[in-house]
Design brief:
Layout lengths: L8 H10 L7 H11 L1 H4 L21 H41 L3 H4 L12 H18 L4 H10 L4 H4 L5 H9 L3 H11 L3 H19 L17 H5 L4 E2 L2 E2 L6 H11 L2 H21 L5 H8 L13
Antiparallel strand pairs: 1-2
Helix pairs in contact: 1-2, 4-9, 4-10, 4-11, 4-14, 9-11
């Protein structure tokens, strides 16, 4: 296997030009490449390629367009991240309240296998999750003032405090092993079914991690798929082989999830912020259409209508 070798900024520009990318301002391109990283920036090249077999850029594609797509993705990550954090905090607060109320709030309660679902086939998952929780509490508990305060003064950390040091993924998995009555109580606060919330949490965690680590977000497809919703039908999303082509495991699926579980004001603000960034992108990119970009994101052309739907 041939080794990858270091390339100077001049060599990076030469590679891009050899693939048909127009460099109008070499000094500007060098500054962007130095600050943003050639590898990360060229992760957006697929949108501008003639085809997967012909890996050259579409005629007329400029470096500024490539960077505009990179910047757009960064902005929507920021928009999504702050809203996913709202959901994360809501889930942690609601779950800790329900479990503490119904089963107790000390470690002997929320780490007690008997307080989870009574299903022998889930015992291994329950024990594994309890081990993960203990590990996160051990590693992170002393690093936060609230958790260290409770440990020092009371000798335990109540659940409504310990959720601060638990990852979103752990809390989402915790929801899946709660007793059914606890799950129903939590899901009812979000106004969704237990099954839907179980579907949504892994997708939210997936996009949260993408946003936190500056990975490509706009074209992401999660492994988990959401069920059909009222919005798929109302937006008349087309089907292929009986399945909706948008809003299942793509970025629009995340928008559908957030539409269902955020409050109306937060979702409206998020949608408006997204539209603003999309308009900026549309003004900067000419070699590909905004319709193609929406398709790559999994958005129907009438996606804005979801903001007016109940």
């Amino acid at each position: 296997m041939k080794d990858k070798t270091f390339k100077s900024l001049e060599e990076q520009i030469a590679i891009l030009e050899s693939k048909g990318l127009i460099i109008q301002d070499e000094l500007y391109a060098k500054e962007v490449l130095l600050r943003e990283n050639y590898f990360f920036l060229t992760g957006y090249r697929f949108l501008f390629m003639r085809s997967l077999s012909d890996r050259r850029f579409i005629d007329g594609t400029t470096f500024e367009e490539l960077y505009a797509m990179f910047s757009f993705d960064r902005q929507i990550r920021n928009i999504l991240f702050k809203n996913i954090l709202v959901v994360e905090n809501n889930l942690k607060s609601i779950l800790s309240h329900v479990v503490s109320k119904n089963h107790g709030f000390k470690e002997k309660n929320y780490l007690n296998p008997n307080n989870f679902v009574r299903d022998p086939s889930r015992n291994r998952q329950i024990n594994d999750l309890i081990h993960k929780m203990k590990r996160q509490i051990s590693i992170n508990g002393k690093q936060h003032s609230a958790t260290s305060h409770f440990l020092a003064n009371y000798g335990y950390i109540p659940l409504w405090v310990v959720v601060k040091v638990l990852s979103f993924g752990i809390v989402g998995e915790l929801f899946t092993i709660l007793q059914p009555q606890d799950q129903r109580e939590i899901a009812s606060v979000f106004g969704v079914e237990v099954e839907s919330l179980e579907e949504y949490l892994p997708i939210l965690a997936n996009f949260r991690n993408l946003c936190a680590h500056e990975d490509i977000c706009y074209s992401n497809r999660s492994q988990a798929v959401i069920g059909n919703t009222l919005y798929h039908n109302l937006l008349n999303i087309p089907k292929l082989n009986g399945e909706y082509i948008y809003g299942k495991n793509d970025l629009f699926a995340l928008f559908i999830i957030l539409k269902r579980i955020l409050n109306e004001a937060d979702f409206t603000l998020m949608l408006n912020e997204f539209d603003y960034e999309l308009d900026i992108l549309d003004s900067k990119v000419n070699s590909v259409s905004i319709e193609k970009i929406l398709d790559q994101m999994g958005f129907p052309l009438n996606y804005k209508d979801i903001g007016r739907m109940k």
